Amino acid sequence: MAGERVAPSGALDTKALRHENRTKYTALVMHGDEASCKRHEQLEFHDGWGKALDQLVATVKKMQACRRLESSGVEHQPDTWPGLMKRILSALLLCAVAVMTEAHAKTPGEVAIGQAVREATLQGLNGRSRLLSEFHGKPLIINVWASWCGPCRKEMASLERLTWLGLARHFNVIGISTDDDAARASAWLKESNATISQFIDARLQMENMLGASRLPLTVLVDADGRVIEKIYGAREWDSPESVNLIRKAFRIPERAPLAGH
After folding, report:
1. pTM listed for this prediction
2. Theoretical Cys-Cys bridge with 220: which of 77, 134, 135, 229, CB 3.0 to 4.6 Å?
3. Cβ contacts of residue 187 below 8 Å, gap of 6+?
4. Phi/psi at 9 (nearest 5 deg)?
């Protein structure tokens, strides 16, 4: 049965960079850098992260207060340290749970497998802009990538080779860059001699709709615009395994030739 897959090579979490400031903030708290913490407190945290970090901050501040009392010779409750350590461990666990929850959460407005993609305007990178609906009527392979994503760059050549096969007459292949900088994405396409129609998704419309929480993501869409497969992670798209996957997903007859056009 068609469904969501993860390629053997894995995929990059596009939300990892969004966690960077949160990680820095936690480290600053643990090291007692209050000035830097105040700057990072201006960031908007995910609700789960915010609650977990609030608890962690409060606990660390209590620990710092205990240290100051110890250094000044003032007595404090003997069970304070175990209690504080327990709270810190609890807070860190909450942080971990928040990360896992967010990492596996669906992107806003994600179209699930079996549902039809919505209309979208695709801004051309190496050609004219088009409507997504213009590709209806024929199965479609949508590869979501970014110029900073190593696995994305690695698999792109195999997608090009896939389009050279006779099998490719049965479907279309397009690429969607999630780069914020169109110039950077265009530079990579020029460097890689890309011939597949490529589009930029600076506003995250396609990224969210297709569920690109990890890159690369390749989505197989049937002729009616219905999502039938989501493959996370890089793979060799012209390999026998991938070709067989495409045949089955798009119900391409076994007798369809693999040779070039």
Report:
1. 0.66
2. 229
3. 147
4. -80, -5
Question: d(Cα 129, Cα 108) in Å, to the nearest integer?
Answer: 24
Asked if residues 238 and 158 have their Cβ atoms less than 8 Å apart, the reply is: yes
CA 218 to chain centre: 12
Single-letter amino acid, residue 109? G
Could you tell me whether strands 121-124 and 197-200 are parallel, antiparallel, or unpaired per DSSP bridges? antiparallel
Say if CB 200 and CB 144 are below 8 A apart: no
Main-chain dihedrals φ then ψ at residue 6, nearest 5 degrees: -120, 120
- Any idea which residue has 């693999």 for tokens? 258
Q: Cβ atoms within 10 A of the Cβ of 141, count?
A: 25
For residue 74, give both structure tokens. 């003032």
Q: Tell me if 76 sits within 8 A of 70, measured CB to CB.
A: yes
**pLDDT (tens digit, 0 to 9) for every residue of the chain, 261 residues total?**
456 666 655 566 665 544 444 444 444 444 544 443 443 333 333 344 455 555 666 666 666 666 666 666 655 555 455 665 666 666 566 555 544 544 455 788 999 999 999 999 999 999 999 999 999 999 999 999 999 999 999 999 999 999 999 999 999 999 999 999 999 999 999 999 999 999 999 889 999 999 999 999 999 999 999 999 999 999 999 999 999 999 999 999 887 666 555
Number of Cβ within a 10 Å radius of residue 89 = 11
**Structural domains of the chain, ranges and CATH numbers in brackets:** 4-12+110-250 (3.40.30.10), 15-103 (no CATH)
Nearest to 180 by CA among 151, 194, 200, 210: 200
